[in-house]
Amino acid sequence: MSVPLWSLFVAALLLVLTKVPVAVAQGRSGKGYDNAHPRAQQAALTGWGARALASHQNMIEAFPLFAAGVLVVLVTGTSGSLANLLCLLFIGCRLAYSALYLMNLATLRSLVWIVGFICCLGLLLIPALG
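Above: the chain sequence. Below: its structure as tokens.
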């Protein structure tokens, strides 16, 4: 499997892995994890738990654009070293973004988000460069 496809797979896993801190925060909320009403419980999270939820939601928002970029380079046959670099950089940015969100480092987190977004745009533009 190619780097873009592996990166897409890892990004899909991050959709679930970024939920883990949210579930931990819900479990520590004093009531335990409310499986009957998890979204209501998530909405009531504060502090670290609220940041974990925001990080998870942002991963859900970022995934479609990244997936579109990967599919564009694969369908157009323009995957190569630049696509590989952008895919790996996106994954690194998403890991860093989640960690920075949990650590409440907003400015650095936003800069990392911008780099990840540029990676997605770059993947979409690779066919135009070739």
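The helical segments are 3-17, 19-27, 38-43, 47-75, 81-102, 106-129.
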